[in-house]
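Can anyone check this?
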Amino acid sequence: MKISIVGTGYVGLVTGACFADVGIDVTCIDIDQEKIDSLKKGEVPIYEPGLEDIVHNNLQKKRLHFTTSLKEIIDDSEVIFSAVGTPSDKDGSADLKYVLSVAREIGANMNKYVLVVTKSTVPVGTAEKVKQAIQEELEKRGADIPFDVASNPEFLKEGAAVADFLRPDRIVVGTESEKAENIMKKLYKPFTMNGHPVLFMNIASAEMTKYAANAMLATKISFMNDIANLSEIVGADINMIRKGIGTDKRIGPYFIYPGTGYGGSCFPKDVKAIIKTGAERNYHLRVLEAVEEVNEKQKTILFRKLYNYYNGDLKGKQIAMWGLSFKPKTDDMREAPSLSLIEKLLEAGATVKAYDPAAVDEAKREIGDKIQYAPDEYDALIDADALLLVTEWPEFKFPNMNIVKRLMKRNVVFDGRNVYDIKEMKELGFDYYCIGIDTEDV
């Protein structure tokens, strides 16, 4: 079976590499010639554990190929996945120009039946637009070639994407023909043999499933951050509360950790997009509007704590920051809380020196030389007036606190992920602040 993946970003590359790893012949297409040339050499442009090994292995076995031309390989493809970006427009809606551009290119070049599968996260109704774009191109050519459109949203967690694809909780597929469903069953057979369910449904339901899942997880995060902030005010301990509700099977222990807000490529964009979808149909998703509002405010909670600590005067203060990516095990800076935090610190006249194990290059592209970048976590601390822990990378969880104390000008830590033990930090002589606990009373 031969398939093609258009787009070699996070979703497209992981999808292509993992399908190749179960024996399918895969060609990945991207318009970026430099990127394709690098991938042909086995150079993976994104940080994702396990991905580089899979790419290397399947390049060597000639099951994974890279090209810039969809036209050249379209007749060899039984299935074409569209995994191009769907960034947020200024009004919050998903920008479908890349998705529809791929559809038009398929319609202009296809010569036989093909199943076109939308892998990108797209609003309800996108499959109809894709179908229309393909059909319009066929009509321009005077061609009558059958095709199907399907929806197969991805559920990949950055930092665990390879494992998520190879061992998925579920595979969601939206189709409208028996032929398309049979092709997708064949494609995913290597995964269903291990007991992973494929859930077939209509296309609109598949498109909505992805948004509903991400919106629910984002809701849990914002809900817990709201509860954490109230807990701190009333003298409750959010860590105890989290354990108290997490043991309820109806709630569960996942996505209920307080912190500095959600970020990344999915939750912010998808929450905005589903809100916009509702508004376009004159239905306001008031819960999700509040979820987004809480999240935006939560991104600057460490700034507010630091600002209050220094009585509103941060001018000239040197701030150390541990973590730039929106979460560990990724270099993704999209909608990262660190960006909002840095912006507020610089506006207040502070200087920032940051370290991240993977995201420094992305941060330089995003914010340039507005801040300093440390070669390691300890270098970031030299003469620092405060340490802000923003991303809970494993190497930040057990630092040598004696070295930390010796390097810092003032021993104050603002822990945005509740990593450290309050009593231990106080015994070591730190002023310590975290999320959802009034540490002054501990």
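Reply from J.R.: I decoded it. The first helix runs from residue 10 to 21.
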